Amino acid sequence: MKTLGPNLLKGLSFRARTTILSSRSSSQESTGNKLNALRFDGQTAIVTGAGRGLGREYALLLASRGANVLVNDFGGTRSGQPLDQAGTQETHCAEQVATEIVAAGGKALANNESVSSEEGARKMVESALNQFGRVDILINNAGILRDKSFANMSVSDWDEVCLVHLRGSFLVSKACWDLMRRQQYGRIVMTSSTSGLYGNFGQANYAAAKMGLIGLSNTLAIEGTKSGIQCNVVVPMADSRLTRDILPEALAARLKPSYVAPLVGWLAHKSCSESGGVFEAAGRWFGRYRLQRSGGKYMPALLDESGSVEQLASNWSEITSFDERALPVESFQEHIGELLSKL
Ligand code: NAI
Fold this sequence. Notes:
This protein is an alpha/beta fold and 343 residues long. It is 43% helix and 14% strand. It has twelve helices and ten strands. It has helices at residues 5-24, 53-64, 93-103, 118-132, 155-182, 194-198, 204-224, 249-254, 261-267, 308-314, 316-320, 332-342; strands at 44-47, 68-72, 107-111, 137-139, 186-191, 229-237, 278-282, 285-289, 291-293, 327-329. The strands form two sheets. It has an eight-stranded mixed sheet, sandwiched between helices. A two-stranded antiparallel sheet has the order 9-10. The longest helix is centred in the middle third of the chain and has 28 residues, at 155-182. It is globular, with a radius of gyration of 22 Å. 40% of the residues are buried. Bound molecules: 1,4-dihydronicotinamide adenine dinucleotide. The site of 1,4-dihydronicotinamide adenine dinucleotide (NAI) has 33 residues, from helix 2, helix 5 and strand 6.
């Protein structure tokens, strides 16, 4: 974990500065109480890994706005191992959050299945259906870390991280998919990370899984369109068990998990029309990512030339330049359309 510090902190201190600046220029923000409340009455949400950290905040927010919430958490260690002492408070974190919701007048059900088990994912969705009658929202949030440099990373470090993040999100989404299609409605939120978007020392497993989730979400967004299912990705940054020994205290205090929850609440709401998006939330700062392709260069004679590699190399700066010809690319159709116009 120590190896991660300097890399992550570099990005974080920049983000923290941005957050401080944006929180000072809040004059244009609309306040929630001037707006119509966005509620989830009659809807059911499954939030995975909701026994602590970000997932807990998502569960509390959705429940406080009327959703029935299945609070899933298998209650293990940060690296995904079962806790040594079964029966500790940590093991029962899902129950604690569900109890908290019910005590506040909400509706919740605790669930301890692991997202990475096919049977567990199926049982989780069945429990939500049996208890609440439907599933409208799925927040794929459960996560673990097994940080090692690539040189030291074992196959099981790779597998376990991919199992929880990528396979787990696939399995629970898959278990919800048919019922969401039948009801012609669904909201799915995946959880990615800046480690996936940019890479991060010691996180080859985590970065690969987190970037894989963007591909999964992009495709579910396309396939879900005709069934009223929308899928988006959040890229959070927050003080939690996962990041506790990485973030400096002063910064951690500005990165409360609760600050991320409104983004998930909005993406989960029926009035939000976003799908296939990637959105970031960190300490009350919110933004969106997009892909961009350079203007490139059409080189029709390249393969006829004996010096094709040399020609490519000598045109490299034009090929890769993000000059005024570089455009954002929103979809595969756009990508292909633009390519065809060049060829
Ligand atoms: P956290 O460690 O506080 O919460 C994650 C929860 O997931 C834990 O309660 C854990 O028991 C549960 N979990 C782990 N494996 C599970 C499994 N197989 N089945 C069911 N539950 C399982 O971590 P945090 O920070 O709240 O993370 C939530 C998500 O956000 C994760 O996917 C993480 O990768 C992602 N994330 C967090 C960032 C941050 O700054 N905190 C940054 C980028 C991404």
